[in-house]
Structures are given as structure tokens and as C-alpha cells.
Amino acid sequence: MKELAIIGSPNCGKTTIFNRLTGTRQRTGNWPGVTVERKDGRLNLADQQLNVVDLPGVYSLHDDIQGIEARVAHQYLSEQNPELVLMALDATRLPRQLALLPELLAMGKPVLLVVNMLDTAAAEGIKVDLAELRKQTGLPVVGVTASTGEGFDQLKSAIASLLVAYPALPKTVDVKAVAAACYVENYGVTRTERIDHWMLHPLLALPIFLLVMYMLFTISVNLGAVFIDFFDIVLGSLFVETPRWLLLSLGAPEWLQAFVADGVGGGVQLVGTFIPTIGCLYLCMSVLEDSGYLSRAAFVIDRMMAKIGLPGQAFIPLIIGFGCNVPAVMASRALGQVSARLTTIFIAPFMSCGARLSVYVFVGTAFFPSQAQNAIFALYLLGILVAIASAWILRRSLFANVEAANVTEMPAYHKPLLRNILTQTWHRLSSFIWRAGKRIVAVVIVINVVSSLGSDGSWGNQNTEKSALSVVGKTLTPMFTPMGIGEQNWPATVGLFTGLFAKEVVVGTLDTLYAPPLVQASDEVSLPSYGADLAEALASIAENAVGLVTAFTDPLKITATQEEITAQQPGSYQAMQNLFPSAWGAFCYLVFILLYAPCVATIGVMQKEAGQVWLSFSVVWSLLLSYWLATNLWHIALLFSAPLAAGSWIVGSTVLLYVAYRLIMAQMRRGMRDQIPVVNL
Amino acid sequence: MMTLNQLHIGQLATILNVNSDNALVRLCDAMGLIPGAPVTVLRRARGKGPMQIKSMGTLYAIRSDDAELIQVVAA
């Protein structure tokens, strides 16, 4: 099949053209060896089918400027020999956009110039003369408006005829002269500048920015949350209960049940619960990106982010982190600079997510009910401070020599296009499901097998004292004595392990382990009734939608979570109150929960987005730092009763942390030169 | 000699040189902020905040630290 490539600079509407040409006949994959996304699609012409490749958006084919993206594009063009290269140009910025053309001609590629966004250019008062462009360059030119589909019939017939016979390629093109001849800038105030007058207004810019961020957070996190139970119930019924019943009826061994139903099925179920949140986030992100506001938001917050050495664009992943760390890590992909992207991925997990909130409320209500709000606020603040400190440290020690230039294009405003937004959301969502999902399922299998396996070799011991996980927890508990967790308090340690699944699982573990249910639930397993499960799943949507009203006044859902847990009156509170030495000890435990390690889903996307090395670095750093922080907070309280022991712990652990920090940094710095390109994948 | 961050709002100028040998030069090169290109400052945030500039119909955000390294000649 003949191949067609589309190339162009970022934000020139290249992908919209690609979507228009190929419709829904697309598939995504990766470029060989790197995780830059590759999109292929089918274009049906009258008498033939073509494969269309959407190349990464690049300003230049030199890889020293744009790194991997440019390398991918260059490599493709030089090795794959597409029949025709469509060069997408944003009409509003034509002179700049033409800069890539000489490089393409130098490679001897047959080029078709596709001038896009003619409607925006007209609205901005910019005049583009296509006939002149054709004359000056000697190349075929088609003008389109990809958002409405105008000009696509001409484009398709131009492609068809160029595939039959391509005119002689001009040797060189004087880009400056071409631009001067066919492009008349609007020297007055353009539409975009008029909108910017308000969006970047000295006084109003910040309120508008905050409003947009608030909407982004409420919609992506809270609207997404409405559908979580639906996915949880339906996928649980299909992938956990059904295989369990099947395996049991077939008389399969118990380990196989633990592996297939709890491991694989549970993993699929866990991945599924992230679909609504991530889908909603990407829907909102795509709207912001497509409309052109994203670069304005970055402009508004840039000064604040510059203080921690990050570009303004990094603010959005971080704010999303308060809802869920998984989309936060994924959203940092939009950052161009490698150092900024890695730093953002590194600090995003310190943003206290919604799942951790339920643990704070559960423990907080047991120990300091009147102070719960303040304690929760302190934890959120602590997370932010740790994030800022980590960013500062990374910048000083690891990225000190990385030159960062902060110049970005601000595209003209245009109306977001529904079909574009939906395709883009779908691509990103499916990339999460298939690529991050695999890793998440793998980790879930491991943890589930360990928690199901009993110390006596039996299976199905989740959340009991007998499970291998509880045994491991008990063995490791002495390690946590320095933060106030006593020998008898091993359920708290087990909670740390199950918390790796998803932080809210800690609540369930603590609840059952502190107050084991007297009667074991009956072991009868029957085929789930799909009708009833579906009805329940649908009912959960309606029920959660009602709660959405309060989400606007309480986006973090602090009050709602408190009410829910108080209403349950967990029976485990008494045992928990007896086992924790004091309310302060419980707070130290919460500090550890906040920081110790991201959940498996976050770990999965971190590995995908930043690579194994960076992930391990991040997890080791979180573990050390959280341990140091939690134990020191506990010892500060001991300073009065046992000043010598407490004082020496504080000094000793701080020295050790510093030594560990130097070692890690030395290790990372040594590998950084080779690592950065690898990690950047 | 003037630098980009010293321009008044609305003042037209021409880029003379990007005075650095790091990522900034390559980035400016790629984005078309090259010697000879016309440039106007549209707005600047307070203090060390970013500036919005316009060059040949394209809008850019640039930090004033970076703008300080770009030499311009006022028209």
C-alpha cells in the first residue's frame, strides 16, 4: 500500500487534517524503540487505499533542538520513503511555518503544501495568497479549513493526481521571499490579541485562571468519580466473579483462582476504575489545548512556577495530582523540556490524592475528631512542601547544568472541535489502558498472590492474620517502631502494603484487621447475576451524580468523606485506638502514608512515561524521605520524655538521609548523560 | 545596545543577536526568532515574569531572563 506522511510544526492543525483524511480508520502504536506515539490511518481515494502516517510535530528536523520527536520524523523520512509528504501549515503563522520546507526539499521529498486554518486567518485579519505561494515555491498548494472540512475534496484530488505524476521538485526555496510575497500580517489588533487583552489582563488573568483550573479539577476528578463505581461493579462481575465461579466449577486448584480471578481479574478491575477519571481529564485537557488557552494558563502561572525551576505548563499536572496522581503523571507529557517533565513526574505523587484522603479521614476521625480538618490541611500542605523541596533539590543537584530556555509559541485562539477532542481523548485513554494497564495488572497479580497465600500454604486468606502478607507485615513491623508503631500494631504495616494497590484500600485493610469479622463470609461462590450487577452499577451512577452538586463547593470532598466514615461507625476504632500509642503517633503514620510510595497505577504510568531508572529513583527517594519525616516527627514528641534517645535518633537519621541523598545523586548524575535520552522515551 | 526585555510595550524592534550559546539559541532558531526578525512586545508580567511578544504574526511567551539575552535594535 502506498504511504503518505503528514508533517508540520506543533499546533498547526496537523492532527486535525489527519483526522479529517482518515476518519475513524486509525490505529496508534509506537515508533520503534521510543514511546513517541505513532498514528496510522487509512485514506480511501476513488481507486485506491493509502496508509497515512501522522509524524510528530516538529519545528525542525535537527534532533539537537527537539530531541526524540525530530529524530523520529527525520528517520522516518530518510528510511521509509513515503510517496508524498503533506506539509501542514498554519495560515496565521505562515512565515514561521515555512521554515521547515527547505529541510524537506533538501531531503528530496515530494511535498504538497496544505495551508490550514484559513478561517482563523480571515478572522484574525491576515491575508494569505495561495496562488502566489504556488508560484513562488513551485510546489503544489491546497488551502483547507480542517475544522470544518472545507477544501478537503480538492486536497484529496490533489493527492490522487500527485501520486500519478509529481512535478519536478524545486532545488531550494527562499522562505523569506516567499513569505513576503504571499502573506500580509494584520498590523492592527488581531482577534487573538483582543481575547488576550482579557485572558492576560493584569488584574483579571489570575481570577480567570483560577476559575478555569477549578472547573478542570471539578469536572475531571468529580465528574469522573461518578462513573468509577459503575466500572468497578461491572468489571468486578465480569473479570473477578465470573472466572472465580468458572474455575471453582471446573475444580481448578485454589492458586489458579487466586492468580486468575484476584490477580488478573482484580488488575483489570483496578485499571478500569481509572478510565472515567482519566477520560474526563483528557477531555478537559484537549479542550484547553485545542482552544489555545493552555499556553495562556502557563503564561499566567509562569512566575510562580519559575521559583521552583519549572515552566508554567507544569502547574496543570500538579493541580490534577490532588485528584489522582495517575492522570497527573500522564499530563506531564505535554511538557517539552526533558528536565521539566522528569521533575514534574517526580513530584506529582507528593500531591495528596483523593484516595489518600479517605485514609486521613478514617484514622483522623478515630484519633482527633475535632482536629481532623486541620490535620488533613496540614497533610496536604506537607505534601506540597515536600514537592517544592524535591523540585528544588533536583534542580540544584541533577539539572544544574541543564540549560532551560523558556520560549513557547502561543497559538491563535480557535473554537475547540468536538471530533478532534474525542479522537484525542480516545487515543490517550487507550494508550493508558493498553500500555500502563499491562504494568498495573502485573503488580496487582504479585500483591494479590502474596496476600491470598496463607502461611500454611492455603489460599484465599486476604485480609486475615494468616496471609503471607500479614506474616511479612509482622516481620517488618519492628522497622516502623521508630515512628510509633508498636509490635502489636502489625495491621498498620500490612495496610502499607495493601495501600500500594490504591491508597483507599488501606481503610479496608485496617478495618478488617483491627476488628476481624467474627463470622467468616460464606465461601459459596455462584455465577454472578449480571442483570442485578448491571442494575446496581447503573444505580451507582445516579447516586453519585446526586453527590456531584456538593462537589462544586467541596471539590476535595473532605466533608463528604467525613460524613461517610462517621456514618459507618467502624467497629475497628477501639482496637486501633488501643494499638496506636497516641494521636500524634497516628498522625506520623498518616505522614508516612502520604509520602511513602505511589500506588501501583501511578507506578505503572511513571515507568511508562519516565522509564525504569527514574521510577526507581523516585520510589527510593519517597521511601527514604517519608521514613525520615515520619520517624523524626515522632521523635520530636519524645524530646521531652527521652531527650537523649530522641535527639540522637534525629541527628543520626538526618546524617544517614544526607549520606543516602549524596549517594543517590552521585549515582543519578553519573548515569544522567546516558539516562536522559533513555528516560525521555 | 538594547535587549528584548528593555523594549517598551508596542515598540517595534529587530532582533540583532541571540547572545547565548545554549538551548536558547537553538530554540529561538527553530521558532524563527532569528537575527533580522522583527519583534514587538505586547505585554509583560510584573517583575521577573514572562513577556508576550509578537514576531511576523506569531505570538510567543518568553521569560524575561531569556529575553535579556536577546539583543535588539529599536526601529
UniProtKB/TrEMBL annotation, chain A:
How this chain sits in the membrane, per its record, is:
Multi-pass membrane protein
What Pfam family does this protein match (any one)? FeoB_N
Report the family membership: Belongs to the TRAFAC class TrmE-Era-EngA-EngB-Septin-like GTPase superfamily. FeoB GTPase (TC 9.A.8) family.
InterPro entries, per the entry: Fe2_transport_prot-B, Fe2_transport_prot_B_C, FeoB_GTPase, G_FEOB_dom, Gate_dom, GTP-bd, P-loop_NTPase, Small_GTP-bd
Annotated PANTHER family: FE(2+) TRANSPORTER FEOB (PTHR43185:SF1), FERROUS IRON TRANSPORT PROTEIN B (PTHR43185)
Q: Which domain of life is it from?
A: Bacteria
Question: Which SUPFAM superfamilies does the UniProt entry name for this protein?
Answer: P-loop containing nucleoside triphosphate hydrolases
One GO CC term on file: plasma membrane
Q: Which residues form the FeoB-type G domain?
A: 1-165
Q: Which UniProt keywords apply?
A: Cell membrane, GTP-binding, Ion transport, Iron, Iron transport, Magnesium, Membrane, Metal-binding, Nucleotide-binding, Transmembrane, Transmembrane helix, Transport
Task: Determine if Hydrolase is one of this entry's keywords.
Answer: no
Q: Where are the transmembrane segments?
A: 198-217, 259-288, 308-330, 342-363, 375-394, 583-606, 613-630, 636-661
| Entry binding sites for GTP 4 | 116-119
Q: Which residues bind GTP 1?
A: 8-15, 33-37, 54-57
Q: Where does Mg(2+) 1 bind?
A: 22
Q: Membrane: is it a keyword of this entry?
A: yes
A single MF term (Gene Ontology): GTP binding
**The protein's name:** Ferrous iron transport protein B
As for what it does, the entry says: Probable transporter of a GTP-driven Fe(2+) uptake system.
From TrEMBL, chain B:
What are this entry's molecular-function GO terms?
transition metal ion binding
SUPFAM superfamilies from the UniProt entry: C-terminal domain of transcriptional repressors (SSF50037)
Q: Where's the Ferrous iron transporter FeoA-like domain?
A: 2-74
Answer yes or no on keyword Cytoplasm: no
InterPro entries per record: Fe-transptr_FeoA-like, FeoA_core_dom, Transcriptional_repressor_C
Pfam family membership, one: FeoA
UniProt xrefs under SMART domains: FeoA
- Superkingdom to which the source organism belongs: Bacteria
Keywords in UniProt for this one?
Iron
Which residue windows are coiled coil? none
Name recorded for this polypeptide: FeoA family protein
